[in-house]
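Components:
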Amino acid sequence: MTLAWLSYPGSTSWVLASIFVGLSVATLFVIIAHLADRERDLRELWARMKTWWIIMIVLALALGSAEAWRPAPYMFFGFISFIGLKEFLSMVPTRRVDRPVFVIAYLTIAMQYVWASSLHYHGLFQMSLFVYVCPLIVVVMLINQRTEGFLTSLGTMLCGLLIAVYAPSHLAHLFALPPGANPQGGAIGLVLYVVLLSQGNDIAQYVWGKCLGRRRIIPLVSPNKTWEGFGGGVVTTTLASLVIAPYLTPFSILGSMALGAIIAVAGFLGDVFISAIKRDVGVKDASMFLPGHGGMLDRIDSLTITAPLFFHLTYYFVYMKGGWVCSTLSFG
Amino acid sequence: MFYFILRVIFHIFLLRPFMYVWVGFNVKHIERLPQKGPAIIVGNHNSHLDTLALETLLPLHFLKKIRPVAAADYFLGKGFLSWFMLRIMRIIPVCRGASTGTSDPLATCHEALKRGHILIIYPEGSRGSPGKMEEFKKGIAWLATQHPDVPVYPVCLNGLGKVLPKGSIFPIPFFCDVAVGETMYGTEDRGSFLCRLESCMRSLACEIKVQPWI
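Structure:
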């Protein structure tokens, strides 16, 4: 089997290679831990590790195929949206009379990723969910004339679309930016940047919280989150951004530091946001789709806020060259 | 043999992709599922997909042995459906309601168990409303107590009633929660076995939490 169709521009291939080296080292550590103490139950950790491998391999294949086969990243993120929406609709209370609305919700995924495929559709990509899909859902819901639970049902549906479809589609929309926007690594570099920092921030906050965590930040929603973990995460992610930004993105030193901090704070918010939803409906994991991790929504929780934010900041400051903000204040 | 190949093709190319991608499972205690036949799998019935889901959860090499027990009055005598059920799904048709003649209505089930088959049976008798468990019929108790050496596997399925409830034809994607219970044997009398089975199913239903329709 040849993988000749894969192409990774600039230094993205090196970044991907280092990720796989890192994964190998982590896997080796798990094996050593198992050999050192065979009594310890490492099945959960092992499942988690295995799933990380699968996630990274599929991500690398999907991103690398973009050059040879344009739909590849859209299909990949569309699939993530599909699983996420399915998890969301399975865990929240819904009404049987709304079955036609679910069909519309799932069709919205296809629509949103078609709009994501080109900057010509950028306007539709940004607003069709609110201007077209929302009224359509309202109309379909009105057919049954059942008003009890109407607002709850409409609200959950829109929230689900926002979390599972609108937010992840921004990662795919990065592939619609012209290649000149990021000579370092193209869209692949931008996607890797935001995904690595969001996931790395989760891990950094967890590790800092485990080591130093004392004062809890939001105990009623997420009892394990601490100020120390949050602060450590912000610092670590900002520094990590400073290190990887030159290889993956066109951002300046100041820009990459700011983005790192923004991703750390927004990632924390996304994490707590999904936690609050899960706590409200009384589930621990959104599903068992990713063994060792829980569901897709548990994995992409921080991206639900970081992805759209990152896209718009990049779009504004790189593609639009800062708009009038930069020309007026004359920086950038 | 020809029908068996058709059944394998149906499973690999249609049923399993549909079940794993379109529907999706959250399975608790999957390791408790039968490793060999004969066995009786007892499920709660909410949707036509229940049998297809249970067959998907079992490994492919069991396909020769799996025999769903299905209502003769519903599935037989309707042309294609009847052909599909008998040849591809390989159901054991059973007459519902009180038996009228002298012959045992479960004779074919006994026969299948003796040949090492895995029966799938729904003691509720009908699909009922989603998320609600009806009272169990006694057929399963007859079967289990007459074969006290055959393990009974209670499996609670939840969520498929939302994917394809009674009366709808288009399956909408939802995750389906499955909990497999501890193996049971029909060593006591029929009444207490049925009680034990029912309480086991209820505790399994509590173990998985699925949002019902509101």
